[in-house]
Design brief:
The structure holds three protein chains of three kinds. By secondary structure, chain A is mostly helical. Helices cover 73% and strands 0% of the residues of chain A. The longest helix of chain A has 37 residues. By secondary structure, chain C is α/β, with parallel strands linked by helices. The chains are: A mainly alpha, B mainly alpha, C alpha/beta. At the A-B interface, α5, α9 and α11 of A face α1, α6, α7, α8 and α10 of B.
Chain lengths: 284, 332, 323
């Protein structure tokens, strides 16, 4: 047998590439990011530009997806809305992951009273249903995009902390860590070279899927008026604006919902694909 | 076991106290004045000040917290600043709606999700599996409130067979429940499927087959019972989500539950309402988590033995050594 | 030694994965007589477990595919038996002991019920009667009947393997497939379990296919031995013959890699190299690359099975004792 010279990363990519759905999801997410970045260029109109004469215009060459009550171009607002949704998804996950992984790593690697303290803290934390926590935080901090992101981020911390702790606890017991100790590696080297790489797989999968969940949560907060504030477009808020005109202008709530669904679906598909590629053993 | 339950119930008290303390601190450090919100911008400073004094908002934080705990222990949740009605009474009326929506949607999702997951797992590599996976992926990716609007549009507006808001009779429950249940059913189905596939590969399933058991018995008795354990855990966390989801579903469907009440309490900084809602929902959630944990122990003997008292544990630890010793005896 | 109980003829099994086809078992033939204990010896990955599982038809399909062959048991071809018919054979006439006792028991069922379940499946008796017999089985393998209602996690590895053995023997099978029953156990426990199996076999008159890579186990228990290499049987003989005059270079290599107390050799003689990749087997003799005797023709054509002495079969162009 010839030794495999491919690096882990390439091997991983080859695994992922086999999963057609995951590749589609990756492409979708890249497109979504591009749309968010290029919204000012792509959008035919500024998102807040009103054309009162064109209230509830049907889709036409002027307004590809029609216009809303104030005559704003729906397509432009959907394109701009990608920014808010992605921001909510990515930044809140980043907050949650950084804080959660730090807490979990501390608890898992050192154990003892630190572990105990952090775990009791998480017990309290998790006794509140996550969505209730998000709603409470977002409302008390005051409705805005920034506060919604903070609320969702803070609400998602315990999951990461527990996952990191659990993974580290399993990894810590593995023989290769003992082997590293036996050759006198320092704590820092063990953590950086052995513990973290071996914990990454479940965390990466979780982070990917969580971006989707946070987009969902963000849309929910915006829907009940606790997220992005008018006139900035956000998919959840757009659905909310259109909720009372279901009878006559259904498409106004349909399109933003589809946007949310596709983004979240892409995150979930990519997460599934990553899990299979990182840990083929789990592949069903 | 009973000792464990009692211990867990007692543990809930400090946890809930901690939560309400956090909420109070959070309220304290963020800007916003309930008195000004109630009286409006036109009110004079003196009026606002006297109202703050009446509500006891000018006392230092520890005093306010102490008073709050003291009142709670006497069953007094305070009076809403906005409606002037006792929070306990109001919550007592509204709470059943929230609980029922959460429970009904949970039950519905379990009844859809588990069979769907089993179907997918037992028909792996077939079209059934692919369809089930894809549908559940779509379902977990849909915002619940949006799906609710789709339901309203179709059943309430196009077909006009179900009410679009409010709860007058049993029909009113259908859409809120279904709109919540779909996503949860999808999560449960995915979890069930992957657990079952994992368990089917285990050696003890081959052992069961090698005993000559019928495939159905292998699947439902040996595999399913093992696969269901992680699903039970998921159901617990889903219940937490469904409480939160119920709040939003109530707002979508104008159900007179805790959702609208909590939300307006939050936006008016109606402190007694906020504290009351958070306490009751968190308390309920903790109880459910406890029930789930007990259910766990009921199914899984390995967990059950962890719950036995400490003395028992020591005996168990010695038990392994005793095993080895018996090993020697048996060989003689 | 009685008549032939189990007869495997030209069995070939492949595993089909995304990447490649694994040729796990290649054209194997093997007979097991009533009351005989036959050892299947070979390295990890040689295909021994696949053979055993295919007899019971509990191979995971997919990915496993039985390409060809017949497995006669009491005159019937098991590969052609209906699933319903197999249910009556599994656990009743043929039972299997799995390699790892840690994972072979259902963690959430009482050990006693797991044994009783097998008994109840194959006998028309009441539940209480099945449980009583299960209790007897536990006692027979040296576990106090009082531990009937304990769970697997309350047992040590050796005790679990006893439970697995009790379960396998519960219906007094005619054939027992033991897949490395002692590999996962401590050496001292191994000896006890082997001794127990030996006793039980004598008492019940069961035929045993003992899968192992431990030649010591073979010497202790087996009447005859088949050496498996890369999915093929390369040498087959009675145990005495095999230990006396091993003829295939691989067999000789296996014995050479064992430490011997009475030997004057200073070092062990490991077999060089690795087993060929089962997805890409060589055209000629499978052992060619590692064989000290390999000549030109070995790489060209695969040798046929030949009888070099009465009852002693070797698949090699140049069989014979060590020079």
């Amino acid at each position: 047998m010839k030794p495999k010279k491919e690096s882990q990363l390439i091997e991983f990519w080859l695994q992922l590439r086999k999963n057609k759905l995951a590749v589609v999801a990756l492409v979708l997410l890249v497109l979504l990011v591009l749309v968010a970045i290029l919204a000012p260029v792509l959008a035919p109109y500024p998102y807040a530009e009103m054309h009162p004469e064109d209230s509830y215009a049907p889709s036409s060459s002027k307004y590809l997806l029609g216009s809303d009550k104030l005559g704003r171009d729906v397509l432009s607002r959907l394109l701009w809305g990608a920014r808010q949704s992605l921001e909510m998804g990515i930044i809140s996950v980043a907050i949650a992951a950084v804080v959660g992984i730090f807490l979990g790593a501390l608890a898992g690697y050192y154990g003892g009273w630190k572990d105990n303290l952090i775990m009791r803290f998480l017990d309290v934390y998790e006794s509140m249903p996550m969505m209730l926590l998000c709603i409470t935080l977002a409302a008390i901090l005051g409705p805005s995009l920034r506060n919604a992101i903070i609320a969702i981020g803070v609400g998602s911390v315990p999951g990461y902390a527990r996952l990191t702790r659990a993974t580290i606890l399993t990894v810590r017991e593995k023989e290769y860590i003992e082997a590293a100790r036996a050759i006198n590696s320092s704590d820092a080297i063990i953590i950086v070279k052995h513990v973290i790489p071996n914990c990454m797989a479940p965390l990466i999968v979780d982070i990917t899927m969580n971006v989707g969940n946070c987009i969902l949560a963000g849309a929910g907060l915006s829907y009940i008026g606790l997220g992005v504030q008018a006139p900035v477009p956000e998919w959840g808020a757009m659905i909310s604006e259109a909720r009372n005109i279901l009878r006559d202008h259904f498409s106004l709530s349909l399109y933003p919902g589809i946007c949310v669904m596709i983004s979240v679906l892409a995150c979930n598909l990519l997460g599934d694909g990553l899990r299979d590629a990182l840990d083929p053993r789990l592949k069903n | 076991m009973i000792r464990y339950v009692v211990k867990r119930l007692l543990m809930m008290i400090p946890i809930l106290l901690c939560i309400s303390f956090f909420v109070m601190v959070l309220i304290d450090i963020t800007p916003g004045d309930p008195a000004r919100l109630l009286l409006g911008n036109t009110a004079t400073e003196e009026k606002i000040e006297s109202l703050r004094e009446e509500w006891g908002l000018n006392d230092p934080l520890p005093v306010r917290y102490g008073r709050f705990v003291w009142n709670i222990l006497h069953g007094d949740f305070g009076t809403s600043y906005q409606t002037k009605r006792p929070v306990a009474t109001e919550m007592f009326q509204r709470f059943p709606y929230t609980l029922l929506i959460a429970v009904l949607s949970l039950v519905l999702s379990v009844f859809i999700g588990i069979p769907l997951g089993v179907l997918a797992a037992t028909h792996q590599y077939t079209i059934w599996d692919n369809v089930a996976i894809f549908l559940s992926l779509i379902a977990v990716s849909m915002p619940g409130f949006w799906f609710a609007l789709l339901l309203i549009r179709y059943f309430g507006v196009v077909l006009a067979i179900l009410p679009t808001s409010g709860i007058e009779d049993w029909k009113g429950w259908i859409l809120p429940t279904v709109s919540l249940a779909l996503g949860y059913a999808a999560i449960i189905a995915r979890q069930t499927r992957s657990n079952l596939l994992e368990v089917i590969r285990q050696d003890y399933i081959t052992t069961a087959r090698a005993k000559g058991l019928a495939e159905g018995r292998v699947l439902y008795l040996h595999a399913m019972k093992n696969a269901i354990i992680p699903v039970v855990m998921i159901v617990g966390s889903i219940f937490g989500a469904s409480l939160g989801g119920a709040l939003i579903a109530e707002i979508v469907f104008s159900v007179p539950g805790l959702g609208q009440y909590t939300l307006s309490g939050l936006s008016n900084r109606d402190y007694p309402v906020i504290q009351g809602s958070v306490l009751i929902l968190s308390g309920l959630y903790s109880v459910i988590i406890l029930v789930i944990d007990l259910l766990f122990a009921l199914i899984d003997p390995r967990i059950r033995s962890q719950y036995s008292s400490k003395r028992e544990k020591i005996r168990k630890k010695g038990g392994v050594a005793a095993n080895e010793a018996e090993e020697g005896v048996a060989a003689d | 030694m009685g008549d032939v109980l189990l007869s495997i003829k030209n069995l070939s099994i492949e595993y089909h994965t995304d990447k490649a086809v694994v040729y796990a078992v290649n054209n194997i033939s093997l007979d097991v007589r009533h009351g005989e204990t036959i050892g299947l010896v070979g390295e990890t990955g040689a295909g021994k477990t696949t053979i055993a599982k295919s007899i019971l038809r509990v191979l995971p399909t997919p990915p496993a595919v039985v390409k060809s062959g017949e497995i006669f048991f009491d005159g019937d071809d098991l590969l052609k038996t209906s699933e319903h018919g197999m249910k009556k054979i599994r656990g009743n006439k043929i039972a299997m002991i799995f390699q790892d006792p840690m994972t072979a028991l259902n963690p959430i069922e009482r050990v006693g019920s797991q044994i009783a379940e097998a008994i109840k499946q194959h006998n028309k008796i009441s539940r209480a009667e099945a449980e009583r017999r299960a209790c007897d089985m536990l006692e027979m393998v040296g576990i106090p009947g009082g531990r009937f209602s304990e769970y697997p996690h309350q047992f040590s590895g050796g005790m679990k393997q006893r439970v697995v053995i009790a379960m396998a023997l519960a219906c007094k099978p005619e054939l027992l497939l033991a897949d490395e029953p002692t590999t996962a156990l401590d050496v001292t426990i191994q000896a006890q379990v082997l001794e127990m199996m030996h006793d039980l076999k004598e008492r019940l008159g069961t035929s045993v296919v003992m899968i192992t890579h431990d030649l010591g186990v073979v010497a202790d228990l087996c009447d005859s031995v088949a050496v498996v290499y890369a999915g093929e049987i390369v040498e087959q003989a009675s145990a005495d013959d095999m230990f006396e005059s091993p003829s295939h270079p691989y067999t000789i290599g296996l014995f050479g890699s064992l430490p011997q107390l009475d030997s004057t050799e200073r070092r062990l003689k490991p077999i060089k190299g690795l087993m060929p990749d089962p997805t890409n087997l060589p055209a000629g003799c499978r052992f060619c690359e590692r064989c000290p005797r390999a000549a030109g023709e070995c790489a060209q054509a695969a040798p046929e099975m030949r009888e070099t002495a009465p009852g002693h079969f070797v698949k090699c162009f140049y069989p014979g004792g060590e020079e």
